[in-house]
Amino acid sequence: MINKHELLDEIEIIKKNIEDVLAELEIMKSTVDQSVMLRVIKHGGGYQYFQRRKGSETNGEYIRKKDINKAITLAQIEYDEKLLGTLLELKNALEECIVKGIANPFETALEQIHPGKRELVQPHYISDEIYLKNWREQEYEKLRFRESFPEYYTRSGIRVRSKSEVLIADMLDELSIPFLYEKPLQLKKKTVYPDFTLLNIKERKEIYWEHFGMMDDREYRDNALMKIREYETNGFYQFDSVIWTFESSRKPVNTRNIRNMIKSLRRILGY
Q1: Looking at the whole model, is its pTM more than 0.85?
Q2: What is the pLDDT of residue 149?
Q3: What is the pLDDT of residue 57?
Q4: What is the distance, to the nearest Å, from the Cα of residue 188 to the centroid of all Cα atoms in its chain?
């Protein structure tokens, strides 16, 4: 189903098209007499073009082949004016949809049957809100922390394994991007526990975020690269279903870059 973000994106595209058409019209109208319009008649296997005064002339003045650019400009102006009208109508209709909302046929049909029958029905579609609520409330077995492991907590009280993970988790919360921490992911040969599991609500597809924070440690780095290979072997690739971020003691995580990345990610995921 179309969501509000998709409607807003479409409206912005239409607004840009309207601006482009208006700019083109302004240039073209400055080159012709705006009191004339193009008249076309069928002639043999082609057409003949005339320019005639609006509301007065019947036939108009014949446009010779050497002056065909005049006919092209008049035709383009007429097309652009009609296009401008339809673009404005579409923009207004989409803006009205955002204000009034769009009726969801799946939810409407469900509301039209008895509550007792609803409990027996398997809906063909559930809203993004319900889907997201069910996704966030799912139960899973998390990795345990060793007794001596340092305690790092996010603002929402989730225990994580590093200060950088605290930063990432808090930024995700701040920008209202839901996540699951260390939710198990079954690969072909083993189970891995991605640091953060995100949900692309538009596609209803999970995205996994692994932050590798000790890349100057050789053993850690080798294990990280091996883990990346395992993801790729199982069909999980960067820019598609996995996000990799890295840091070392000399090059710590850049919070500005991470924040900007998450802002971009927010729109991609549909929030």
Answers
A1: no
A2: 92
A3: 67
A4: 31
Per-residue burial over 40-73, b if 16 or more Cβ lie within 10 Å, else e, is: eeeeeeeeebbbbeeeeeeebeebeeeeeebbeb
Is the predicted pLDDT of residue 4 greater than 80, yes or no? no
**pLDDT of 228 strictly over 80:** yes
User: Mean per-residue pLDDT for 193-208?
Assistant: 94
Q: What is the DSSP string of 51-77?
A: EEETTT-SS-EE--GGGHHHHHHHHHH
pLDDT at 2 over 70: no
The pLDDT assigned to 97 comes to: 83
